[in-house]
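User: Just a sanity check before I run the rest of the batch. Below are the structure tokens for the first item. I only need the designed sequence back.
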């Protein structure tokens, strides 16, 4: 459980710094106390469900990302990472078909 809380705290801290916000600014935007933000970032105690939702909204991330570290199409903050993942996947598929076509022509010739 402590490891999970530390991972969640790390994701909050990372996104907050990415947005160049202080703990106080994040707390105000999320409608929670700065002590709650600090405790969450340090992994000292679990967040209440309503505070998880408030933090995710303030940080523009999904609860999937905050709780599990999984990026999905609703994570606007990580859209560039999703685009890279799609681009990489497309490149692999194209290379597979190019290889397959070469192998097919070699076998037919």
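Assistant: Here's the designed sequence for the first item:
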């Amino acid at each position: 459980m402590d490891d999970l809380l530390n991972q969640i705290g790390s994701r909050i801290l990372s996104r907050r710094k990415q947005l160049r916000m202080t703990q106080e600014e994040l707390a105000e935007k999320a409608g929670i106390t700065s002590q709650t933000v600090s405790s969450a970032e340090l992994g000292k105690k679990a967040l209440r469900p309503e505070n998880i939702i408030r933090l995710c909204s303030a940080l523009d991330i999904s609860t999937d990302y905050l709780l599990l570290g999984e990026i999905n199409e609703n994570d606007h903050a990580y859209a560039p990472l999703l685009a890279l993942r799609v681009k990489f996947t497309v490149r692999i598929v194209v290379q597979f078909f190019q290889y397959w076509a070469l192998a097919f022509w070699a076998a037919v010739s």
